[in-house]
Write a structure and sequence with these properties.
The chain has 5 helices and 5 strands. By secondary structure, it is α/β, with parallel strands linked by helices. It has one domain (6-121): Response regulator (Rossmann fold, 3-Layer(aba) Sandwich). It has a 5-stranded parallel sheet with strand order 2-1-3-4-5, sandwiched between helices.
């Protein structure tokens, strides 16, 4: 059986999670979705994905805190973390990178470009 790259999409907007999930599955990824930071950390504890697309602005635990916790709990085998946000301020980018994110992509990025960046950032199938 093929070993497909695993991606976790984390966003409090369910429609965005489902859309990303659909597009990435069509591109050959194994995709799971989480709708808040706590759920994301629980899914990561069950199975560490190759890449995490993580919304910055979520109620409860924001994406920057989730990113920080992932880096603390998985220092030897870290997943690639792509912050995905509508907040394009420089301070958000700086905070994301300081928390351990690999990059920040804004939500105005077309979905096909986001998909291309995810493909480029994950191990091949």
């Amino acid at each position: 059986m093929a070993n497909y790259p695993k991606v976790l999409i984390v966003d409090d907007e369910a429609s965005l999670v489902q859309l990303c999930k659909f597009v990435l599955e069509m591109a050959g990824f194994e995709v799971r979705g989480a709708y808040n930071g706590r759920q994301a950390l629980n899914l990561i504890a069950e199975e560490l994905p190759d890449l995490i697309v993580l919304d910055v602005m979520m109620p409860g635990m924001n994406g920057i805190e989730v990113c920080r916790r992932i880096r603390e709990t998985h220092p030897s085998n870290p997943p690639y973390i792509m912050m995905y946000t509508a907040d394009d301020r420089e301070g958000t980018k700086d905070s994301s990178l300081q928390a351990g994110a690999n990059e920040l992509v804004t939500k105005d990025t077309p979905l096909h470009i986001l998909t291309d960046r995810i493909i480029a950032s994950t191990p091949s199938a």
